[in-house]
Each structure stands twice: as structure tokens, then as C-alpha cells.
Amino acid sequence: MPHPLEQLRDHALREIESARDEQSLEAARVRYLGRSGSISAWGDRMKTLGTEEKPIVGKLLNEVRNSVTAAIEARAETLRTEKESEALAKIDVSLPGTPSERGSLHPLTEMLDRSIDIFRRMGFALADGPDIEDEWHCFDALNTPPEHPARNEQDTFYLPDGRLLRTHTSTVQIRAMQAAPPPLRVIAPGACYRRDEIDATHSAQFHQIEGLYVDKNVSVGELKGSLEFFMRELFGPETAVQFRPHYFPFTEPSLEIYVKSKALKRGDQWIEVAGCGMVHPAVFEEVNKARGDTAYDPEKWTGFAFGLGMDRLAMILFDIPDIRLFAQNDLRFLKQFA
Ligand code: DAH
Questions:
Q1: pLDDT at 266 exceeding the cut of 90
Q2: Straight-line distance from the first to the last Cα atom of the chain, in angstroms, rounded to the nearest whole number
Q3: How far is the CA of 306 from the centre of ligand 1 (A)?
Q4: Is 190 close to ligand 1, i.e. is its CB under 6 Å away?
């Protein structure tokens, strides 16, 4: 004769197995294992049993509870899977899908990637510096005296604490030299900020790639060769490159770079694309002072530096008429570069 608990279990298992949905399964659970369920009732009945019977029935009760609980879980899982495959069966896989829109790189990002790639091939490493700078990195260390117009509040965004939004990426020249002794060959791409009147060619935020190369006997010839190579890689081998004398406080001599190329829309004009020059000895001296050594001894080391306007280059390369388009997020504009 099976024990009544065993009979109860067999009943329960059959009922669970035949439950057609979640509700009837839950009803079965409550009926057997709920607070006043028929299996749970045996818990109370235990108290009335004699000392011999108690451990045997106790053990049996445990087994019954476990197997019924396991059966409920297994049945629930089966019902879930059945429901899922029913739902899946209703999907018509022959229907056309919903295409996801393809993104593309922003033209400035594209320009930056191409430029970085060219400099990488020339052995330049990437350097970085903060957009919020101190006056020393932006001006003093770059041989720019306090009375220089760039330091005017009309031209530069100052923070209440005296710091500022960097007006050029030349700040990273200084940071790179503070961080490592020569020789050094780095580029630093990044955003710059000026309080310009905003129009088709001026924006309060624009982008530059700074370059710095310091070594023994670096010459103007190497400066010209490197940047000519860059311009021809970027604008095509037929590009003409011109260097015109200019003035920057942190280079001597200083030059501006102009390009002209038949491959460009404005192919018949010389277009100014960058500033460059040989690092001014005063810059090395100021870096030495900050480093507290003479690592950048201007008698031993020379270097060239350059600053390329990324927005400008992208406007020329992709024939974009207005710098403001870069920041307007108009998909009709951006999709043209996809
Ligand atoms: N910092 C200059 C500017 O923003 C550009 C520049 C000129 C950078 C000459 C240089 C350089 O490194 O040598 O107009």
C-alpha cells in the first residue's frame, strides 16, 4: 500500500503535467503547496505523529515537496517555450525587414582621420592637452607677451578664475616638452576657441592639428619637405605648395603655407592653410624653466612646429562653402559625406 503522501504526489504530478496554461499550473501549485495546500497540511499533521513515524514521514514529505516543486518548474518552462514558438510561428519571415539607417563620419572627423594617418606614416605620435588652459601654456610659454592682442578679453574666452579656452593647439607643444625630453615628434589634434564674429569662415569653435618636431639639426628644409609631403598626400600629387614669410611669436622664422591644386574647386587660387616655423629659442628656455632642467638646450636642439586649420582644410577638400554647416547637424549636409 503506498503511503497517502505518495498518492497525493502522484495526483499532483499528473495534474501538473496536464496543466494547459500558466493559470491552471498556478492553481495546482496553490492547491498542493500553497499555505493551506494538501501537501502543506502534512507539515501540521507531523506534530501529531509518534517518535518512530515522525522521521520517516518527515523524509517522505521532503521528497514529495521537492519532486512536486521541480515538476511545477519544469512544466512552467515547457509552457513558456511553447508560447514563444507559437509567437514566432506567426512571424512572416518573407516580409521585407525594417532597414536601419547607416551612419557616416562627420566631414571634420574624416579630415582629422586622414591627416593623422599621413602624419603617423611620417613617424609622429599623438599628444593631447586640455581645452581649458592656463594663460601660461597658451601665451607666456609661447613667447607671447601680456600686451599681445590675442590675450585681449575681446578675442579670447576667459573663465572667472583666469583660465581660458585655448585659442590654438600650440599649448600642446609646451605640454609635450614638459612631459618628455627631446627628441620629440608629436601631433596634437583638437578644438580651439576664439571670440570671433561668426560668419561663413569664422566660428567660435574650430579645430587644429598642431605639430612639433625637435631633434638635433632640424632644418627649414625638413619643415618644408614634411609639410609639402602632407599637402600632396591630402590634396593630390599635383598640388603646388608655397611658403610665405609671416610672424608668430613662438617661431623664428615664421611662415604661412599656401596650396594651389587643379584637383580643387578653387584650383586657380592660392589658399592659406597653415602656419609654421622654427621653434623660437625663447620657447625652449621657458620650457626648461618649467621643467627645472636644461633638456631643451637651444644650443643643442632645434625644431619645427606647425598648426593646421582642420575646418579650413575640410572646407577646401570637400568644397564646403560655410564653416557653420559643420555644427548645424543638418542631415542633408552630413549625408553627402556618407
Ligand atoms: N597657433 C597658430 C594659430 O593658431 C598656428 C601656428 C603657427 C602654429 C605657427 C604653429 C606655428 O605651431 O609654428 O594661428
A1: no
A2: 80
A3: 6
A4: no
Residues whose CB is less than 8 angstroms from the CB of residue 301 and which lie 6 or more positions away in sequence, other chains included = 182, 183, 214, 215, 216, 218, 284
pLDDT at 196 (0 to 100): 87
Q: What are phi and psi of 296, to 5 degrees?
A: -100, 60
DSSP-derived secondary structure letter, 141: G
For residues 205 and 192, the answer to whether their CB atoms sit within 8 Å is: yes
- Single-letter amino acid, residue 222: E
**Nearest-10 crossing angle of helices 4-18, 22-33:** 170
Distance between Cα 295 and ligand 1 center (Å): 23
Question: Cα(117) to centroid of ligand 1, in Å?
Answer: 21
Is the pTM here over 0.85, yes or no? no
Using a 6 Å cutoff on CB, does residue 207 contact ligand 1?
Answer: no
31-59 pLDDT, tens per residue?
Answer: 999 988 999 888 888 888 888 888 899 99
The reported pLDDT for the residue numbered 76 is 95
> Do residues 212 and 283 lie in contact, with contact meaning Cβ atoms separated by under 8 Å?
no
Cis peptide before 2 (omega within 30 of 0): no
In this structure, which residue's CA is closest to atom 8 in ligand 1? 307
Of all protein residues, whose CA lies closest to atom 4 belonging to ligand 1?
168
pLDDT value at position 165? Answer: 97
Pocket test for ligand 1, best of 164, 186, 254, 306 (most atoms within 8 A of CB): 306
Rounded to a whole number of angstroms, the CA Rg of the chain reads: 38
For 248, what's the count of Cα atoms within 13 Å in the CB-facing half-sphere?
A: 25
pLDDT of 46: 84
Instruction: Compute, in angstroms, the gap from residue 137 CA to the centroid of ligand 1.
Output: 14
pLDDT tens-digit map of 144-163: 988 887 788 788 999 999 99
Q: Is the CB of 166 under 6 A from ligand 1?
A: no
